[in-house]
Design a protein that fits this description.
two-stranded antiparallel ribbon; mainly alpha
């Protein structure tokens, strides 16, 4: 499903709320949120909770390449929503997350 990112008017406040919300995991592992790997400050690098790999800052203000490739955005939203929320994000949730990230 192609996400028409540019055509969705997301809610950055809802995106911020969803960013910090912790989602219980069905496998017994600790609850996760986007903050688990990306931190609250999107201008700083994050670290993947499992692989320990560094994640470059998501904030377009410090990493102008972020959110410029729709295929990459869709790929990572699919993976990260499944891993964090335990399901795919709705188009509204995706739009809200992107709107939030764009404000950083």
């Amino acid at each position: 499903m192609a996400l028409p990112i540019a055509s969705l008017a997301g809610d950055a406040t809802a995106g911020a709320t969803g960013w910090t919300k912790e989602y219980p995991q069905t496998d017994g592992s600790p609850a996760r949120s986007c903050v688990t790997c990306h931190n609250r400050d999107l201008t700083k690098p994050g670290r993947h909770a499992v692989t320990n790999k560094t994640i470059e800052p998501l904030a377009p203000s410090v990493n102008p390449q972020r959110l410029t490739d729709q295929a990459k955005v869709e790929k990572w939203l699919l993976r990260n929503c499944r891993w964090t929320l335990g399901r795919e994000c709705t188009p509204e949730e995706k739009s809200d997350f992107i709107s939030y990230i764009e404000t950083q």
